[in-house]
Amino acid sequence: MEGSALRPGEIEGGVGLLLDALEAVDRDGWYAALEVSRPWSRHNPRLVGEFARPAAIRWYLRRELSALLSKGAEITVRPSRRQLAFDDPQFFAALDEERFDVRAKKLFLFGPERMALSLDRLSHYCGTPAESFQRYVLFTNYAMHIEAFRERFPDAEGPVRENVQMPAWHHKAEDGGGVSIVNIGVGPANAKTATDHLAVLRPDTMLMIGHCGGLRNHQRIGDFVLATAYLRADHVLDEVLPTTVPVIPTPRLNQFLLDELDERAVQYRLGTVYTTDNRNWELNQRQPLATMRAARCVAVDMESATIAANGFRYRIPNATLLCVSDKPLHAEPKLSGEAAKFYEASKRQHLDIALSCLDQVRRHHPGGLPNQDIRAHDEPLLSGEQP
What we know:
By secondary structure, the chain is α/β, with parallel strands linked by helices.
């Protein structure tokens, strides 16, 4: 299909035909290939990528293909290879993300085997079809935020079975424009697992709304912390993303959160969040305390830096808004009775701030937040805006 031959009013119909063709190839048992010819690009005029279950990212493909056709790209859909079963020995070998040709730019970050596995595991871990996930994703480490979400959206779709590891709930809207929330539990391992697999869906945002230990004298239980940087002591991504690589929240997403905090006149601190894989770091204090003081950290948690690091790896805008639930350095530990009162008081406000932030993202960036700060300068992916 040649974008240059389509009138503006014909592009939507053309994209629909391309999407239907991709899904038909998938149903026939093949990986669907997209070949894109971009006449405006001197360095990357031709991009090719393969997809598994393209229906799971139909909204994303619709947006990207519309942009490409509007610029005059020529797009072809064809069968590529027969789909591999999960128990095929070749399937395992194809999952390695570090095996790639540096001379060829990627149309899509993931191969079809990786995509198929992640979509299957999302359903397994979260208890809902991967296709149910929306463009805007919240992560929490407490069931109480799930409760507040379900109160806010009583029609939300949830797990189809009990006792799933990371239950997800979805408030759906047209073309994936709703909100999903995932209870990843406590710790960086689950945070990595969830974001590893969610990345294939190409969400517009990942926002962590969890609890943290406050590290400053003037913080109070219930105050918010808006992360401006992270100290990565979670260790789960060190081998694939060295800790020397700077990782920060997406600036525009942080600005929307800051606007909401100021609008509501709530207490908050900006600063560095220390993310650890050791829930009992207080029992071996010397090294973590020295690092926290050197970096002037304002909070400690177990998930935020992991989500941010994977957001950076996989080019997904992300941010962190935490709520102080205890102050380990100031004789205010997390005790069961007081914690219950705090949780009940804070959960709705915390969720409301996050949802209002996402409303701003929808309003100001309906085509997705700019991600120049997490995308390589010469990395086109599907976008028609890259060289």
